[in-house]
Design brief:
CATH class of the largest domain: Alpha Beta
Mean pLDDT: 86
Order of helices and strands: EHEHEHHEHEHEEEEHEHHEE
Organism: Herbaspirillum rhizosphaerae
Pfam families: Trans_reg_C
InterPro entries: OmpR/PhoB-type_DNA-bd, Sig_transdc_resp-reg_C-effctor, WalR-like, WH-like_DNA-bd_sf
Helix content: 25-40%
Keywords: DNA-binding, Phosphoprotein, Two-component regulatory system
Protein name: Response regulator transcription factor
Number of strands: 12
Oligomer: single chain
Low-confidence stretches: none
Shape: elongated
Length: 227
C-alpha cells in the first residue's frame, strides 16, 4: 500500500517507515505534493498540519481514504481532535495515535485501518535472496523446503543482513534499523548479540550451508555468502 506521511519531523517519518516495512511510506510536507501522491492511506501529524488540518482531511475524502492522525498531549492537538466532525459510518475512516510514537502501536493502528478500508487487500510481500524466501508480515523464511517462523525483530534483522551481503554492519546501524531510537534506553546490552545468534541458528547461516555470519570485532556483524 502507498502511504503518505504529512509531517515536518524526519524522525517520525523514519520511525513510521520502519514500523510498516510491507508498505511504501513517503514523507510529504506540502499540500501540493500530497495532491500528486495519491496515497491509499494518509498519516497526518496534527502539529505539522496546523491550520491546514481541515484542508488535508478534505483532500483525503476525495476519494475517501483512511486517515491516521498523530497527536501530542498538548491543548492545541487535543482541541483539534475534539473539533473533528462526526462522520457517517463507512464514509471516512479516521483514527488517532498519540506521540511519542511507538512502532508496534503505529503498525497496529495502520493494520486495523487498512483492514477496514480494504477488506480484500492481501498485505503479503515476498523478498528472495538466493535460496532464501522471506514472507511478510507472517515473518516466515523458506529455505531448502523448510519454513521457519521468526519473531518480528529476528525477521527485520535477517532481511537487513541479507540485503547487505558482504558488508560489515555496525551495531549502531543494526540498532537504529531494527530497534530504532525510541528503544535506545530500553535495549539491553546483549540484545543484538542474542538476536544474531538466533538468526544464525534458525536460518542455519553456517559455512557448511554456504553462509557465514561473523562478528566484526569492535564494530558489528557481517553476513557473507561463500563460493
Amino acid at each position: 500500500m502507498h502511504i503518505s506521511v504529512f509531517s515536518h519531523s524526519a524522525a517520525d517519518i523514519a520511525l513510521i517507515a520502519r514500523s510498516l516495512p510491507a508498505h511504501d511510506c513517503q514523507g510529504v510536507q506540502q499540500r501540493a505534493d500530497l495532491r500528486r501522491a495519491h496515497p491509499q492511506l494518509l498519516i497526518v501529524d496534527i502539529a505539522s498540519a496546523g491550520a491546514h488540518l481541515a484542508d488535508l482531511l478534505q483532500m483525503a475524502g476525495t476519494p475517501a481514504i483512511p486517515v491516521l492522525l498523530l497527536a501530542a498531549d498538548t491543548p492545541s492537538d487535543l482541541a483539534a481532535l475534539a473539533a473533528l466532525p462526526a462522520e457517517p459510518v463507512g464514509e471516512r475512516l479516521i483514527d488517532s495515535e498519540f506521540k511519542p510514537l511507538r512502532r508496534n502501536a503505529v503498525a497496529a493502528r495502520v493494520k486495523l485501518l487498512l483492514q477496514r478500508a480494504y477488506p480484500d487487500h492481501d498485505e503479503k510481500q515476498v523478498q528472495q535472496f538466493g535460496d532464501y524466501v522471506f514472507e511478510s508480515p507472517a515473518h516466515i523464511v523458506t529455505h531448502a523446503s523448510t519454513q521457519t517462523t521468526l519473531t518480528q525483530k529476528e525477521f527485520a534483522l535477517a532481511v537487513l543482513l541479507f540485503s547487505n551481503l558482504g558488508r560489515p554492519l555496525s551495531r549502531a546501524y543494526l540498532q537504529e534499523s531494527v530497534w530504532g531510537q525510541e528503544d535506545e534506553n530500553e535495549l539491553p546490552t546483549r540484545t543484538i548479540d542474542t538476536h544474531i545468534s538466533r538468526v544464525r541458528n534458525k536460518l542455519e547461516l553456517k559455512p557448511e550451508k554456504g553462509f557465514r555470519l561473523t562478528t566484526v570485532y569492535g564494530y558489528g556483524y557481517q553476513l557473507e555468502q561463500l563460493k
